[in-house]
Amino acid sequence: MNITVEAWRQDRPDAPGRFESYVVAGVTPQMSLLDVLDLLNSQLVAAGDEPVAFDSDCREGICGACGITVNGRPHGPVPNTPSCLQHLGQFPETTHFRVEPFRANAFPVVRDLAVDRSALDRVIQVGGHVDVLTGQAADADAELIGHDTAERALDFAGCIGCGACVAACPNGSAHLFAGAKLLHLSQLSYGKQERGRRARAVTGSLDHDFGPCSSFGECAQVCPADIDLSAVAAVNREAVRAAFRRRPD
């Protein structure tokens, strides 16, 4: 079957962008949104035209690199699913796709659908890590962690850093992303020793690169890792805890 793809084209970061419309032939319901872009690019290259630039890597919903905005929704029509795992058979009534990059001030366009998400990396650089003693590895059961605590920490560690939460938020907030990192590390024993410093560093990075939380919850509706809104609440809670600690950690 044939579908229409209206793709955002932007030659370089400082160039004006525009939408260009293409008819993509030979599409099947089994194809993902990225497969459609691959097919479109094959047609463009065969015709001697420039392919549409977009990011992708694992195509298994793990790496978070594939984010695009489809018909106004980050990642695509299917909630909580990355672009690479959204297949046309899941929305057979849609035959026109308007694809554009993630729209957020923190994500400047590099080219076409590819954006620079270094602002998320800066959050990780200032607080998404722990200090540990080097030397011989400790036994696996040296520090016991309860099952419920471990499972909840792993749930928040599942964030793939795709940036869809930022693109979905009217204010361009990264609270869901940052809160997932804070909750993941604050619940585990090896992350508690620098909990306050981490909270102050992460919230400072958020203030510098991202907007304030809108409190509408659009972020949770597009998150491929199903991070819930308790992560958003954790950002202010961890910041307040760090501010009122007599002995900063």
TrEMBL record:
EC number assigned by the record: 1.3.5.1
Enzyme class: oxidoreductase
Keywords annotated in UniProt: 2Fe-2S, 3Fe-4S, 4Fe-4S, Iron, Iron-sulfur, Metal-binding, Oxidoreductase, Tricarboxylic acid cycle
Domain of life: Bacteria
InterPro entries for this protein: 2Fe-2S_ferredoxin-like_sf, 2Fe2S_fd_BS, 4Fe4S_Fe-S-bd, 4Fe4S_Fe_S_CS, Beta-grasp_dom_sf, Helical_ferredxn, SDH/FRD_Iron-Sulfur, Succ_DH/fum_Rdtase_Fe-S
Domain 4Fe-4S ferredoxin-type, chain residue ranges per copy: 150-179
Entry's family note: Belongs to the succinate dehydrogenase/fumarate reductase iron-sulfur protein family.
NCBIfam families: dhsB (TIGR00384), PRK07570.1 (NF005746)
Protein name: succinate dehydrogenase
Native organism: Gordonia alkaliphila
